């Protein structure tokens, strides 16, 4: 697929469209030219202000804030423009509706006490189910489609939960119920890239290989504790992110760990970072609370057990994080372009330590506060089988 990218200095109708979207979102103030509408779309310029607005948008939405409108940023811009009531909402298998209107709907249903696992802006089967329940409860035809009558009913009712994060409570309640024992739990390990896609490569290291090797080390340790482990790919396969997410959903995994390494033109760049599903900033942000907690545990266990630089945890809306229904984290385990990180990563002993850190983090997700241990001290032999 050829990818169109728009950035500073570009001009033309596509830039005009991007500017219009940013103005509609209230991120870019309307210019005099555009309010006078004397400027033709062909002359629309991607200037400094547009660049700033795009970066701000990307930051708000958990995308990498590089100021370039690539296909991912464009897609998220598209999703952001929908307001609840703008269009009919329904569940279509294989072609899910995604947008801010769906996020608003999910938040509203949650406030009203209906079961939504996560506010993610995706109209999936669970959202359809919640809408049907809602329709039944107000005596409307329960077809799972949100049209004008449903929008009106939603607006009429006052929430029974206010200010709370009902989805967060529900997520932690499920973890609490499942108890601390590891046997029977399902973890999907996702070695990044694979096949023809080798990922980052520098200093004789290939990301696809590192990720697969690390996945095997984690798999062995987790399986020994009784956890059922699945890998999203074979050694030479390279499924896309959506396929990986679907796989995790179909195995009904409790947790997903995606493994990557990073690279940067500047060889000084180094360190480990862990990502979870979410958008940054405002109060009505979307995020997986448990994903955030899991990411924190993974990051802290790795930092405590290795001498990798701590690049912290961050909310992102990458497809795998968003489309998995369970807490999912993505670990970027150091920079192959950094000589120090590269020599660590190539050491099998280091990979074992990282595998152990991740297994311990999985266990800690399920430990109630009174049983939890400080970071860096729990050993494999002490896991609860
Ligand atoms: Zn990668």
Automatic annotation (TrEMBL):
InterPro entries found in the cross-reference section: MurNAc-LAA_cat, N-acetylmuramoyl_amidase_3, Peptidoglycan-bd-like, PGBD-like_sf, PGBDSf
A Pfam family this chain is assigned to: PG_binding_1
Keyword field: Hydrolase
MF (Gene Ontology): N-acetylmuramoyl-L-alanine amidase activity
Residue span(s) of domain MurNAc-LAA: 245-363
GO BP term, pick one: peptidoglycan catabolic process
Broad enzyme group: hydrolase
EC number(s) per entry: 3.5.1.28
One Gene Ontology CC term in the entry: outer membrane-bounded periplasmic space
Gene3D superfamilies xrefs: PGBD-like superfamily/PGBD, Zn-dependent exopeptidases
Family annotation (SUPFAM superfamilies): PGBD-like, Zn-dependent exopeptidases
Domain of life: Bacteria
Record's protein name: N-acetylmuramoyl-L-alanine amidase
Species in which this protein is naturally found: Actinopolymorpha pittospori
């Amino acid at each position: 697929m050829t990818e169109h990218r728009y950035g500073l200095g570009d001009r033309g109708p596509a830039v005009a469209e991007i500017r219009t979207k940013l103005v509609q979102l209230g991120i870019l103030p309307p210019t005099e030219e555009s309010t006078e509408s004397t400027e033709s779309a062909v002359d629309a310029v991607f200037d400094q202000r547009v660049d700033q607005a795009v970066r701000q948008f990307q930051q708000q939405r958990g995308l990498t804030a590089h100021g370039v409108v690539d296909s991912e940023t464009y897609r998220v811009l598209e999703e952001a423009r929908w307001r609840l009531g703008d269009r009919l909402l329904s569940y279509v298998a294989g072609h899910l509706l995604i947008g801010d209107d769906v996020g608003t709907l999910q938040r509203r249903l949650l406030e009203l006490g209906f079961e939504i696992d996560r506010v993610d802006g995706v109209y999936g089967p669970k959202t359809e189910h919640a809408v049907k329940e809602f329709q039944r409860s107000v005596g409307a035809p329960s077809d799972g489609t949100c049209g004008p009558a449903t929008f009106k009913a939603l607006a009429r009712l006052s929430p029974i939960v206010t200010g709370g994060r009902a989805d967060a409570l529900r997520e932690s309640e499920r973890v609490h119920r499942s108890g601390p024992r590891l046997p029977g739990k399902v973890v999907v390990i996702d070695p990044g890239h694979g096949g023809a896609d080798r990922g980052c490569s520098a200093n004789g290291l290939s990301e696809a290989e590192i990720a697969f090797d690390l996945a095997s080390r984690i798999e062995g340790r987790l399986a020994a504790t009784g956890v059922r482990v699945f890998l999203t790919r074979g050694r030479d396969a390279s499924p896309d992110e959506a396929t990986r997410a679907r796989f995790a959903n179909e195995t009904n995994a409790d947790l997903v760990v995606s493994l990557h390494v990073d690279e940067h033109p500047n060889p000084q760049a180094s360190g480990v970072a862990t990502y979870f599903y979410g958008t940054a900033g405002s109060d009505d942000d979307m995020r997986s609370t448990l994903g955030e907690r899991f990411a924190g545990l993974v990051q802290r266990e790795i930092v405590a057990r290795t001498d990798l630089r701590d690049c912290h945890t961050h909310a992102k809306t990458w497809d795998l994080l968003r489309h998995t229904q369970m807490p999912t984290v993505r670990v970027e385990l150091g920079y192959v372009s950094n000589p120090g990180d590269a020599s660590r990563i190539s050491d099998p002993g280091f990979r074992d330590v990282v595998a152990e850190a991740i297994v311990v983090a999985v266990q800690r997700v399920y430990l109630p506060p009174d049983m939890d241990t400080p970071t860096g001290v729990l050993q494999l032999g002490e896991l609860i089988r």
